[in-house]
Amino acid sequence: GLYDPATHSMTIVNRVGDFGLTARFTVAHEYTHALQDQHFDFAKLGVNASFPTDRVLALHALIEGDATLLSGLWMQAHISLSDLLDLGQLLLQSLQPPVPAGTPALVSRTLLFPYLDGLSFVTALYQQGGWAAVDQAYARPPGSTSEILHPDRYLAGWHPTAVVAPALGKALGAGWTRTYLDTMGELTFQVWLEQALATPDATQLAAGWEGDQVEQWDGPAGAWVIAWRSTWATAGDAAAFATAAGSLLGTAQAAGVAGPHLDTVSGSTVTLLLASDQSTLERASGSVGS
């Protein structure tokens, strides 16, 4: 099923002939998207934005979580004995992630996040204040995946800390262009850290995320540099993240992935630099304090 906000149309594909529970559940989900667009205007919300990645994921989690909860409640209210077989098939499908085997963890987690974590987030709002509380979230949408992962932060009015990556342009000189600027968010840190730390350690450490910004600069002869600055709840969190990041990048280098790196910790802020070569890294490191 698909609701297209560009054309305000809904498409349902049904290959089994009869219009069973799965098809009706899908209609309920997609029809909710149409109602969301009608009342809250997806275009104004920025649904079609591609960055900042963290904010876009959070917004999609609100929208998909809302539709998933409502369609689930609809199913509870309208299921019949004849639907039980379809219900078993629907539950079986829900246990099988709709991503191919071997998909990178960050990609699969990002695809499932709006539905699974979004449902938990919207359920928390619904339990506190019913549909009115869910509707109010569209007037104050969550701005980070951290608020989705921790609904109590959203409910308490918590906001991420604005972080500015190092100003590399002056240190790099002529011929360099910034080609990427984004905020990755707690979810990305969580998935990345899971490669270095055993769960739940990675989840617990990632929960200390307060804000980040990452940028990439490309220069002559294929040279490049990435600066990723993040701020953490405590200096201990920052130090633990820097240690884990160093471990991950060291493993990548051992596997033949190019890019010297430099971690610096200043209070609760960590700056991570990766470069195509040692000379570029040394030039960029002069901007770490900026």
Write structural notes for this entry.
This protein is an alpha+beta fold. 53% of the residues lie in helices and 15% in strands. It has 12 helices and 7 strands. It has helices at residues 21-40, 42-45, 53-78, 84-94, 105-139, 145-149, 151-155, 169-172, 185-193, 201-206, 235-254, 278-285, and strands at 2-4, 9-11, 177-182, 209-218, 224-232, 261-266, 269-275. The strands form 2 sheets. A 5-stranded antiparallel beta sheet has the order 3-4-5-7-6, with helices on both faces. Strands 1-2 form a two-stranded antiparallel sheet. A hairpin with a 2-residue loop joins strand 6 (261-266) and strand 7 (269-275). The N and C termini lie far apart (48 Å). The model has no long low-confidence stretch (mean pLDDT 89).
What is the structure about, briefly put?
The protein has 290 residues and is an alpha+beta fold. Helix content is 53%, strand content 15%. It starts with a strand and ends in a 5-residue tail after the last helix.
